[in-house]
Amino acid sequence: MKFSALISVLFLCFVFAACASEDDESCVTVLDCPDGYSCVNSVCQPPVAVNDADSPDGVENQDSSETSDSGDPEDVELDEYETPIIGDDDDVTASSGCPNDCSNFGECNIETGKCTCDETHAGEDCSECAEGYHLEAEGDDEDGNPDVRSCVVNLTCDPNPCNNNGCKEVGDTVKCTCTASSHLGGRWCEKCADGYMLNNAGVCKEDCSLKTCTPPQKCGIDYATNEASCNECENEYYTGTDCKSCDPVHFCNGHATACVVEGGTEKCTCEAAYQGEKCNTCASGYFQSNGSCIKNCDANKCFKTYQCTGTSMFGFETTATVSGHGTCSNTTGECMCDAGWLTAGSGSGETVECGILTVLETLNNVECTICDKNNPPSQYASTGCPQSLTGDTSLCNSIYSFTFCGMSGTCYYEPTGAHQLYCVCNDGYHLDNGDKYSGYCEADSTGE
């Protein structure tokens, strides 16, 4: 019975060897074979179990220099449990890694396989807190990194780590209670509480979420002090610290000298040429031209000739003619003076009496009545402007003057040179000394 069993086992081994031989695959290197197979004589061979009985150490030793009949080092069979040598040098062997990669809290020594932990961690894999440190409690962010539960240093209330606020020891750490008067917040009372901001003096002051302002003012940041203040206006076109000034361009059609806010309403002070609540119409005496209000030319003040009458100082009626020298412009609304004639320096015209003895009628702001002594008009091109038409106030033009020309002469400004005054005597009179610059007009001799 034992002999037949032995025959059966040998038969099965023969069949297995034959099948294995048929399944062998060709190879060039061990990389061409399945895991655990070796490449021998260009054929993938299955792993060979170690025979403990053949080796006194329990592992079969093989000569590392053993080669195949072909002499190819790649044909050397490797023990199933032997680790291949890596690299070119015979003395280099594989090293084991550090446990748990040192938990990312230390450095791994690849020669010893041991961790060197940072100052806050300990243990073989640096997963424990070092002496003097503790693991942050869940939800208690002590180090300012809410995403990681870290090992942080043990604390007590002496010295007080709470920025001089309330402190209570809890286990290996402390709990801070920020005082209301300090307006501080945060885990360590290290920042301003919600609703407050740090000013330039290092004090927590209320921000715009708490600041109350009276309309039309609103809260803004005063960057000079870094404090919230009512320094801005609800309406972007209001200005001033009290928001009582307004933009005349926006509210007054751009034609106001001032704009103020009264009772929530904008009040405009219009330029002379404009009127209306928004300064959007022309004032009296002005007309619309190309979007602007132009002053109307007053034909009674810009004229060629004007007849006026009045009562003399002696009580009788008198008529006089006053001449102006201008023309009204229909495009600009201005009084355009003729060549050689001017308006008074203020631009408002000259006040002219109607006749020397007239006391009741006077023409005010008559334009183009001043003779330009530096560029006299054509009718005075040779003689120069009469002083009486230049607006000068010399006694030469006065009926009370007996020092120059007298009552029987007229003063003129020379048209060239220094434009100094000279005297021209009336018919029947001559200069007493023959000098027109200093002479006095006296009557001619009759020969009697």
Describe the structure concisely.
The chain is mostly beta strands and 448 residues long.
Could you please describe the fold and organization of this structure?
With 448 residues, the protein is mainly β. Among the domains are: 99-163; 194-234, no CATH class; 246-294, no CATH class; 297-371, no CATH class; 393-448, Laminin (Ribbon), CATH 2.10.25. The chain has helices spanning 2-23, 248-251; strands at 38-40, 43-45, 106-109, 114-117, 121-122, 128-129, 133-135, 151-153, 166-170, 173-177, 184-185, 191-192, 196-198, 204-206, 217-222, 227-233, 238-239, 245-246, 256-262, 265-270, 274-275, 281-282, 286-289, 292-295, 305-311, 317-323, 326-328, 335-337, 341-342, 350-353, 362-366, 370-371, 409-413, 421-425, 429-431, 441-443. A two-stranded antiparallel sheet has the order 1-2. The chain has a two-stranded antiparallel ribbon with strand order 3-4. It has a two-stranded antiparallel sheet with strand order 5-6. Strand 33 and strand 34 form a beta hairpin. It is elongated, with a radius of gyration of 59 Å. It starts with a helix and ends in a 5-residue tail after the last strand. Mean pLDDT is 78; it is low at 13-24 and 50-95.
